[in-house]
Amino acid sequence: xxxxxxxxxxxxxxxxxxxxxxxxxxxxxxxxxxxxxxxxxxxxxxxxxxxxxxxxxxxxxxxxxxxxxxxxxxxxxxxxxxxxxxxxxxxxxxxxxxxxxxxxxxxxxxxxxxxxxxxxxxxxxxxxxxxxxxxxxxxxxxxxxxxxxxxxxxxxxxxxxxxxxxxxxxxxxxxxxxxxxxxxxxxxxxxxxxxxxxxxxxxxxxxxxxxxxxxxxxxxxxxxxxxxxxxxxxxxxxxxxxxxxxxxxxxxxxxxxxxxxxxxxxxxxxxxxxxxxxxxxxxxxxxxxxxxxxxxxxxxxxxxxxxxxxxxxxxxxxxxxxxxxxxxxxxxxxxxxxxxxxxxxxxxxxxxxxxxxxxxxxxxxxxxxxxxxxxxxxxxxxxxxxxxxxxxxxxxxxxxxxxxxxxxxxxxxxxxxxxxxxxxxxxxxxxxxxxxxxxxxxxxxxxxxxxxxxxxxxxxxxxxxxxxxxxxxxxxxxxxxxxxxxxxxxxxxxxxxxxxxxxxxxxxxxxxxxxxxxxxxxxxxxxxxxxxxxxxxxxxxxxxxxxxxxxxxxxxxxxxxxxxxxxxxxxxxxxxxxxxxxxxxxxxxxxxxxxxxxxxxxxxxxxxxxxxxxxxxxxxxxxxxxxxxxxxxxxxxxxxxxxxxxxxxxxxxxxxxxxxxxxxxxxxxxxxxxxxxxxxxxxxxxxxxxxxxxxxxxxxxxxxxxxxxxxxxxxxxxxxxxxxxxxxxxxxxxxxxxxxxxxxxxxxxxxxxxxxxxxxxxxxxxxxxxxxxxxxxxxxxxxxxxxxxxxxxxxxxxxxxxxxxxxxxxxxxxxxxxxxxxxxxxxxxxxxxxxxxxxxxxxxxxxxxxxxxxxxxxxxxxxxxxxxxxxxxxxxxxxxxxxxxxxxxxxxxxxxxxxxxxxxxxxxxxxxxxxxxxxxxxxxxxxxxxxxxxxxxxxxxxxxxxxxxxxxxxxxxxxxxxxxxxxxxxxxxxxxxxxxxxxxxxxxxxxxxxxxxxxxxxxxxxxxxxxxxxxxxxxxxxxxxxxxxxxxxxxxxxxxxxxxxxxxxxxxxxxxxxxxxxxxxxxxxxxxxxxxxxxxxxxxxxxxxxxxxxxxxxxxxxxxxxxxxxxxxxxxxxxxxxxxxxxxxxxxxxxxxxxxxxxxxxxxxxxxxxxxxxxxxxxxxxxxxxxxxxxxxxxxxxxxxxxxxxxxxxxxxxxxxxxxxxxxxxxxxxxxxxxxxxxxxxxxxxxxxxxxxxxxxxxxxxxxxxxxxxxxxxxxxxxxxxxxxxxxxxxxxxxxxxxxxxxxxxxxxxxxxxxxxxxxxxxxxxxxxxxxxxxxxxxxxxxxxxxxxxxxxxxxxxxxxxxxxxxxxxxxxxxxxxxxxxxxxxxxxxxxxxxxxxxxxxxxxxx
Length: 1391
Description:
By secondary structure, the protein is α+β, with helices and mostly antiparallel strands. α27 (1157-1170) packs antiparallel against α28 (1176-1193) and α37 (1334-1344) runs antiparallel to α38 (1351-1368). It holds the Pfam family Suf. It is found in: Nucleus, Nucleolus.
């Protein structure tokens, strides 16, 4: 019984202070905070039991355990809730929870774990945790710490017997007492145990164990003392672990000091209340049972004066009242209902913390107030208990969902929330490995992202946040609440869900998650998890892993050795082939097995230029996946290949659905994992009867249709449908635009027209230039052709919508509708709903003045907005009366005549107006937006338009101003051409007296007329015919004819197609023929002159000409600005300037051009000997030229010999770097790698070496090798300043030549370590601006000005921000930055 003077129980004398000091305090439930604060005092009077009883009756214990009651060092009965590799989650009574780390189970278990980890036996380590503790097991736990956090309370506990029995001595144990111990070892006749008490041995005989029961070393357990062998030095306990012995009632001679949670006692009931039971056990020990601990027991049997078997939960530290439960050690049952199941529940009773419900026949559930609040009406102030009573009635049935099961309370935690009841992804059981899901970022932690899909929480490891190699700054783009696409990578046995965000895994349709799916010769996508010298470990979904051996990897690499550690990076997505199983290990390869007729071969059977039908199987943000041909081969259409109009591409992508058929698709690339198909190119090739060519068939000046791929620092990359060439083609900036112009902004896969400049079949290489897209020079015929194509595409989209019975197209253009206004935004635009729930929009200028939300207005349909799935409506009655209900395109006016129109609506492709003339039948007119050159024309009521033609039910018009400007331009071009031809005729007439000269003159005429601009011809012959009489309203086409046109046609009999319509070659054969004929005539003239006898005058003239010829030659010899053309000229010039490497290099080039290689070599040697030895740079240039010569035309041996010589006479580093660049440019990568390897071993400390090699790799698009060079450089150069310089320079290289996402990560890493480096912030911004990433550059500056730096540094940053916004922003953004600067100055003043 209690022996504390603060809570006297009577019947025992107070001992002396000296005796108390000598006696060891062995109270298990002592709380240090209270014990230290109290001093033991000797009290003289005796206290009787009646007073003790009165004190007990004055206590009013109620409720059960709560976090407020939990204190450090308390002992509580707990139940195992969840077991993981690192910790055990436990439950206490009162719906409270704690955590036990694996090193707090028992000392013996901790020792075993350490040995497992040392030996690397991870499997035994993982299994051992689950062997010693099991879900649902009851254990005593001691509180180590408790803290309150934002999300609740964190309770750390231990179940180690050493901690549980820490206040006891070996003499304190009694026979029949329940103790907590753990297995130390297995002996011949039983188990050795320990209770964690010094000098106390414990033995458990096999006979005292339940039949079939076995224990693991380190496992904790309850046992009962059967025998005590005691001495002054030590005690030996013989115990029993049989359930019948453990569950026996404890003897009455025990005191409060012997109590342990889980111990069974006999409670004498003193009082029964609706809230609980009060009583006594042992000698004057007081107990309390809360109503939640006897809810399943018949309350009628619980009467005052009777006894009941109860089990100890915990002892309240202050009052020393023992809280008990009627549930025993062996009575905890498994849940009958699965978590997440939806069941019908009956309301039992409502309590202040929630309500109890009945599930099935006997199961009890509980719904907390927190869950109930979400189902109640939202009011500012209300009594929650009363609100629950009015909403949920006792005895009624409601649907609920089971959220959790509490073993300790034998209680289901449920909810009535409709959102959770309807949630499809409620638990891990509702998900499948490989499933693609929408995720929400819940939390960003150091090791990854915590995400949610539905009600399921999961984890994205750092490795899986991006396709690229992980760095800390990759997570900077994620924010809490962000929505991302993910895929389920694995679901563990504990129900933990692992997701991946890698785009390579998301795009892959196959999912290797079972061993039986690993069929040999099949292809799958995985990711690298480990690299060794012996190979790489590839992981797939679930726990499937495979191995690519070093031998397999290098046998596939064309003789070049590859180190797997450098070839792969951790997390890299790879497409691999299954070879089979070897020693139960999955063997993989990067290439398909030789004997496999695989998908790739089938794909190659689809030739570039082949037309096929396809079926949509999946819709991605980047395009459509299809099955094409009879073989159902997987293929892909990029979004911007769906239509020639970029605006309509997005609409078409939204229009198509899975299983839709798309006919006549053109294959434009078959070298990828899936052939690339194009609907856009198919339409163009069929319409203009185009063909796809092989590389050798391409000719100079041919027009080639290309697709934009990506930007470069010095130009762009495009791709073209060439049968035997699939590489990206580089177009430098100078071949795209003038130096004064900025580089145009292209979209991915945008159509670009290019002209072939040169084709090198040896390299192979194609040189292209981009044809100008200047709208001011675009003919109206081209504009109208493009516009007609756009309208045809819109009709195609409309037909697709109509086939799918879309509500949108049921409202025909021109038809009247009634619509209800749902919302009016700040701009005055009205959003409405129509009769069949179709959504619509009324622009501000087309809405009535008195409209309000909820009102119904009448309108007329103007347009179908397929992108936003809206109907564009006009609700002004004055305009609607002018619009015919039947929009059939029929007008009583001839085409090419003029009339006026009122502009109603502006869309991306065109402007919609209504024709005002009565004879136009109140029809709508569609005008290309590109023809509306004046903004004022878009706001006029009377825009003059030319009715051009009818297409289906639409009338196409052109602004009259546009037609007039074209006519003036055409007339000027005709005048210019006429004047040219007059000059030519005059010259012809003057020379016609000489027959031979006349022939030459006619040739000149042919050359001159053939050089007339092709656009002039097309304008004269085509467009002038159509628009000549448009101003007068005449519909007759008056052809323009003149002698100039006739001569033009005669000299250009071969028709030249428009550049937008076909491939063509500009033929200059006439020119070549005329030149050759002229040369022949001159030769004949010379022969004839020799035969004739010259007169005196003629002789004088000949002498004069000879003198002039000699003078001209002398002048050429004196003039150094004229480039030498012969060896003599070079020798003469080199006498004057022998140290000019530029002149020597020209001399060498002349011989190389004439294929005189030996002479070129000898000239090079002469140059090296002649140039002054002090002019190192000049000599160096000659050495590099000679090496280039040997590289191109010599042997490997001659090249190496020359290189060794060059290294002796020049700077070794400079020479190595130059040769590496030469080899890289010529494509000799193996030789280049050899030189790099040698240079790295020689110049490890050279910053220049590392940077230049990195630049070479970047220029070759070998990004992985370039990044490896950076890492190697940082390992070799240990000086911090030089390391920092390397990091910055490599970040710039990555930004200029590499991947922008990696470049951003590099800069973020640098600034994370050095946020005060203002110059780095500025470099970062400048690089983003150069890449045209203006918005991201703005975000960088916004982040920069939030740094806490010195005033001078902040001034520089703010000045940079203001200059940036001045150049790239608006006056509003400039003002915003100035306000930020003012705010910063204000904060400085306050501090």
